[in-house]
Design a protein that fits this description.
heterodimer; A: three-stranded antiparallel beta sheet; 10 helices; elongated; B: alpha/beta; eight-stranded parallel β-barrel; two-stranded antiparallel ribbon; globular
Amino acid sequence: MLNLAELQQSMRESIHSRKMKPSLDVEIVSSGLSVDRRLQIYQNNYEGTLVDSMLGIFPIVTAFVGEVFTRAALKHFIEGSPPREACLSDYGGAFAAFLAAYKHAEHVPYIADIASLEWAVHSLQHALDKNASESGGYILNENSMFIDSPFPLLNLWMVGSGQLKPEAVHVDQGGQFVGVVLYGGEIQLYALSKAEQQVLGCLENNELSGDIASIELLKTKNIVI
Amino acid sequence: MSNQHAFTPSGSSLPTGISLKSQHFSEILEKSPDIAFFEVHAENFMSDGGAHHRYLEAICDNYALSVHGVGMSLGSAEGICKNHLKKFKDVVERYSPWLISEHLAWSKEGGFYLNDLLPLPLNKESLSVVSDNIKTMQDCLGRKILIENPSAYMAFNATEMREPEFLTELAETTGCGLLLDVNNVFVSGKNMGWAIEEYLKDIPSSHIGEIHLAGHTLKDLGQGQEIRIDDHGSEVSQPVWDLFTALTERIGVRPTLIEWDTNIPSLDVLLTEAGKAADIMEDQQARNRIHA
């Protein structure tokens, strides 16, 4: 008979692998419903609640590829990167990288960048809004995230969220550098120009450089405060 | 053990509450429904910021709060995660809840978190593990917590104690209270073949600090087999209302929550369910007055 630590290890491995370990099988009371079906309930709960939780984080990905595809991708992702913390709002940051390498997503090459954008929005929705007022100088807003995409990412995001018609966007129309910013309790998304991107590159090295108009534009967007 | 809290239910209203869902934040602030308390999952408020914190702070200005943990893994042989406990404490310090609760279950092993309430063999070894973990949690929070009976779909050959006996031992060893989930007793009883009424009678009244009521799903597995899944996605079933009525007759009024986590309906549906619980408690109080 296993001690408690051994039993928990055996059950955790059985749930992760979706295969009953023989060491666990003999520990479970066998009456009525088979032990396999009893374990399957816990496996389904584990996987089902994680998938449902992550579907809530990636609605635009789902809008592009459909719920069936997203659920299948999430199941594969969970299998390879099971959660390590109980706070599930922190889980899923690696989904974009997973999609970038997911062979079933090869026909939607922009989907990983959409997942990155959704994760940025989700992360900032849970971040402490540290910038309630302007700094008086030119500092990069701590609550800002950027995605440099070879696709028209913000336009695609607007299609997925129903703000643009699909025919208004073509994936080959060129890339976008998208900034996501939390300021005053609100999340804003911007497609930034090359000049703005250069200013941001300098600010990350604690240098203020670039054309004045771009710096001021970033300030109006609360990316520079 | 301190029981300090910022806001407790007051007035003549009975202590009924509902799960607080983000879909209902604005409506609650707008309509101020007649309900004593709301319950949130601690894990949903462990982030530093977010609109959900602003809503909860506003709601807590007018209502009592119950913080219900689902990820502490009090049954883990490896002990509870100090980082998670710190985050839980931050939630408690931020909101000073009226009630705090967790589960008789485990979910953490070997550095992995399984987001489910997994079952334990109920014996001396697990009693010692869970008792130590409850003491750690209570010492850290400086508060008495309530431990909830989970829904069970399997049992272990290593079990030596019935669940009511195990929970009672926990309460007496650690000073914790019990959160008796009547739906979970019904689901586990049906799934595992327990004597449900006997289970409820065997939990000492003095330990029960809160009651949960929720809906569940009956699944037909074919060949005469069925299983009940505790999914918190529907109205409380009639057999569970009957058990709640009998329990209230025995122990009197306790803070009672309508728990709803999937297929979230309108706020009115949750309030109607809470109203049913209040009616049952009110009937019981009226009978007590007549007898007195």
